[in-house]
Amino acid sequence: MSSTQVDTVSDGEPGPGRGGPSTPHGGEGYQRGLGARQIQMIAIGGAIGTGLFLGAGKAISKAGPSLILAYAIAGLVIFFIMRALGELLMYRPVSGSFSEYAREFIGPFAGFVTGWTYWLFWVVTGITEVTAAAQYMTYWFDVPQWVSALLFTIILYGANLISVKIFGELEFWFSMVKVTAIVGMILICVGILTLGFSDAGDTATVAHLWNQGGFFPEGIGGTLMTLQIVMFAFLAVELVGVTAGESKDPEKTLPKAINTVPWRIAVFYVGALVMILSVVPWTEFQPGISPFVAAFEKMGLGVGAAIVNFVVLTAALSSCNSGMYSTGRMLRDLALNGQGPKFFTRLTRSGTPLVGTTFSAALMMVGVWINYQWPGEAFNYVVSFATISGMWAWVMILVCQIRYRAKADRGELPVSSFRAPGAPFTSWFALCFLALVVVMMGIDPDTRISLYCAPLWAAILLVSYRVLRARDPQNAAFAKR
């Protein structure tokens, strides 16, 4: 790519947080190429990924049918988080929203930590998803996982360099495949329960939800221990906040997308799990195997299992594609605010953050090495750290919404046109729930490693910020607006 194809933000341009407020509609140089159709499907597909299709297998083995209740309660918390985000977005819809709000309502260091942590979350998530995709490929081909992981990373990187319209179109069809598959799965299960066809027809019954050791076969403790897996499944629902700067009509499309959260969770998580666990007893599912694939195999529908495996492969690639998209935008937001290298501000003529996306994709190649070294444990190694880093963005959304609401109620800031119902009490409840998840992660030896990594990452950020402040005090210590 020649230098004439790349636009660079001028050194004197005050980005958001650099001496002047952001424009109401982003104004970061991106093209508004995401329409209502694409935003809706990005919002729907963001909550349907590897955490449901692959991680649910391990969660079912730990909690049994009570996993349904865990998803329902966690889904309510996610709705509170998304409405808090929606209130902030309608106050000021900007790309890189999480770090922008953290800078404004908490301080420049909070924005620095949030931006870099959310970037790391998507890098790690990209590794997680490409790992899952590589595992799905072994269903058909006897190919080493690292080969598939490398191929997928290269393809998605190339797709993300074209334009945001291509990203949006890919996500639309990825999400359409996932939605169609889950709805189809639910309808098939309903048919088995009512008409009794397939190999599982004679034994399928809703009573499986309580006959195999009760609804809580592993006790309340077993259910609580699945919260980390459950919350990982919901990571990426906040992606609509990153798309704010490239949405054609954010004031209309974003609230509509956020308000779909309750029925998304009710259908795609609660509904799907109720159906699967009614057709196949929970004791027959195993960790590391997609419950959707396993359910079709138990039904004797071999072709169906192959189709579902293709769908879950699509889901993993969709999430990785979203990671490629968001990491470049977050790095550019940091660079515009003087909290990252200036070369990350570079955009192609099609509005793609070339350098940031390339840098992130290069780091995602670490996933290829992980798949080469530990093909069996790769997914579990990275999923817990992705959860703790992703939840940081949720915490910042809630804290910023609480502070924004207080200022708006005092008349210091304009009132959002999309106020979160029940806030700030719902936001405080969500914060307490996230704290419970962290406690459970510390108790579980399988997820405790993420809590060991978090202080190390925090130390790296603290040292980096001190160096940044010493070299460029004006940007690093930008006062809260």
Characterization of the model:
- The chain has 481 residues and is mainly α.
- It has a single domain (26-476), classed as Amino acid/polyamine transporter I (Up-down Bundle), CATH 1.20.1740.10.
- It is built from 22 helices and 2 strands.
- It is globular and about 70 Å long.
- The two termini are 39 Å apart.
- Mean pLDDT is 80; it is low at 1-27.
- Residues 39-468 form the Amino acid permease/ SLC12A domain.
- Its main location: membrane.
- It comes from Streptomyces albidoflavus.
- One of its GO terms (biological process) is transmembrane transport.
Short description:
The chain has helices at residues 36-46, 50-53, 55-63, 67-91, 97-105, 108-137, 145-160, 164-195, 208-211, 219-224, 227-234, 239-242, 250-258, 261-279, 291-299, 302-336, 354-364, 366-373, 378-409, 425-443, 448-471, 473-476, and strands at residues 6-7, 347-348. With 481 residues, it is mostly helical.
